[in-house]
Design goal:
Helix content is 84%, strand content 0%. The model has no long low-confidence stretch (mean pLDDT 90). Keywords: Signal.
Amino acid sequence: MPHRTRPMTALLLFTALNAVLCATITPVYDFVCFHPYWERRRERHRQQREATIANSST
């Protein structure tokens, strides 16, 4: 006998999984984008850029 498919269960599972993923994307995005690492990195790059400009102008 062939395996029976359950389209309603699959549809509900698919919909529930998408709902969970949509609900959790904003906190994950905020955590990754606003992590203190990026601010430290931006500050370090700014300091290096300023040091390079100061050294090249003298």
